[in-house]
Amino acid sequence: MITGIDALAFAGPAGYLDMSDLACARGVDPAKYLNGLGQRRMAIATPCEDTVTMAVDAGARALAGFDVDPAEIGTLIVGTETGVDHSKPVAVYVHELLKLDQRCRTFETKHACYGAMAGLTASMDWIASGRARGRKALVIASDIARYGLNTPGEPTQGAGAVAMIVSEKPRLLGIDPSRIGDYTRQVMDFWRPLYSKYAFADGHYSIQCYLDALVGARADAVGECVDLLDSLAACLYHVPFVKMAFKAHQRQLEIEHGGVVSRDHNESWQVLKDSYQRLVAPWLSLNADIGNIYTGSLFLTLIDLLRQQASALAGREVSLFSYGSGCGATFCIGRIIDGAERWRGALDPSAQLQARRRLSIDEYEALVHASETSDSLEALDPASFGLHGGVYYTGTRDHCRQYTHA
Q1: Which CATH code for domain 4-405?
Q2: Which residues are catalytic?
């Protein structure tokens, strides 16, 4: 049975920060962010926009945009590393707010940026086992990447959610269960202790862990294959920042060439650049405009690919690599479904992104400070942040989070 992704939708905050504005405010050459990291903008959430509200928005868009009856959903999984409670899962809030059937399995998956891929493969197993009985799974990646003002990680922030509906007759991407590879190793490359709102990271070590996990998960999925890239239409990677995708693709090419690919070797370096431009770079524009959304970053690249080339690449295979610090990873092969281009309007978030408001540095910094205490405030007014027409977090009363349609 080839199960896979039947629907996709993105939802994110109403505001963004331009990276050139951040660079100017921090006394940094804008090229460091624009070229060095590959980022143009990063989505910034207000205190009323949290992991729950973005997940609900993305889930609603996926259900409505792809004509899926909420009663068809038999499993709901939210992958997140920025949940709102140490015990209560984000999925239960989302289940209620989307008005899903009570005969539905719900849970939250946490493994840094790997949570949504864990949810995707778990839902595929649920369908293959026969437990689905014709129903579908809703898997949502929802996160807010925060690193604090004037920190090294500040330019790699972002926020957003990607919702995926998984079925046994997918309309967008089929995933081959015989070519899914996994990798796990306990490392301290990125973590967020219970007492901290911000993550801690060993940046250079984390990049090395990511690349080691790519090697291991790929080997588990396709063995010692040395000509995989020639057969693929695209390579999709977890993207904490856009230039990480280049480093990942470089490692894949090194696996196939059996040696180091570097600037010192002109011929191999040109092969790398050509391969990257063909298989990777065209699908990174959403990541560059939204920023790091942790669990959803890989699936942003899939949305970008499908909105651009679903028709031209119908029937072609693509690779997907998901990495979560700590660490866990999956490498798999999918095939773009014939007819996927019919759903471009439903999955393309261009209208959402064009409607966002560009924040000034003062506005951005005020939102950061406001978010630091928002979990304990009794009342928050979405209108005070210019928000309307959605579900928003409105404060915590009697230790219970409140969500309101505004």
Answers
A1: 3.40.47.10
A2: 81, 113, 238
